[in-house]
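Posting for a labmate who doesn't have an account.
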Amino acid sequence: MTNAISLIDELPPPIRTKADLPFATSQLRPLRIGDLEIGFPVVQAALSGYSDGPMRIVARRLGATYTLAEVMIDRFVLDLKDRSRTRRHLQVTDEEHPVGGQLMGADPEHFGPAARKLVAAGFDVIDINFGCPVKSAAGKSAAGKSGSGGCRGGFHLGQPDVALEIVSRVRDAVPSAIPVTLKMRRGIDDTEGSREDFFRILDGAFARGVAAITVHGRTVAQKYNGPSNWDFLREVKQHAGPRTILGSGDLFTARACLDMLLYAGVDGVSVARGAIGNPWIFGQVKALAAGWPLPCPDIAEQRRVLEMQFELCWAHDKPAGAMSTMRMFAIKFARMHPRHAEVRNAFAVVRSLEEWNRVLEQWYPVG
């Protein structure tokens, strides 16, 4: 197996030199969020449509020190009834702690009650989403004007007063022992006004008692296009000083996670799309930081984790829902397989438990 340090020569040029790496990684600090001891500073982000209970549990078992549930709209949380059909959305298992629940919405008045409901469900942290860049997050109010009645997610970055009111309402609503955190992008766009709004919200949120802020290095206007600006993340951490900043954006490999930690000097990194279908990334970055051999999942290990997540999904949802979810995940897992295109196509047409098992037997044989 290839040694983790020698593997650096096979990867894209590092932000720091190879000689710097062993010393620099020895200086990595355990992550804290409020009074919560998280540990190794690489966590799993909230992933809309993905980071359900089974994905979070698999990530924890494979090395993630902290995970966030997929974002929930505040009104959805408030309207959610305690029924078997919907209970899974607020389900938190013992092995997940610490785990965060993420809220997104338009009306500041809804955030406090929704946050209290997440705390009652067992979430250890309440995270406020000011980062989602999708168009559906920027609706219109009943009067047809954008504002607190229609903006959600990253679009709140253009209205600091509303954003900070949301922060205050959440912080005031939940017990002091429950950390409140934010997810932000670096602004609506690259204008100077957007930059000023970003730092106003960042400083105002910390002043209102927020324990940590995750910053994505793209603007809302960029969505997922173009590179994440790690220089901006570095600037934000220097500005924040001892206050806790996590970085996000372009974290698709263990090496990228380590590079962001070292280059930007952030207190932690939050892995989003890079964890979909690759829960091994959390163990890999720990190995790379320690100078250990980099674990690479072979066919047997890929099958083990696929079956693990399938069993969790099957227990978490009804058969049709579990099959649909695992088909979506398996297509992502297929990227790890040597014959990924064929495996992806095989998973794409799976509609039953029998078909699922046939794909595993054909492409992930045991023994």
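Reply:
Got it, the structure tokens are right above this. The chain has two domains: 4-290, 299-363.
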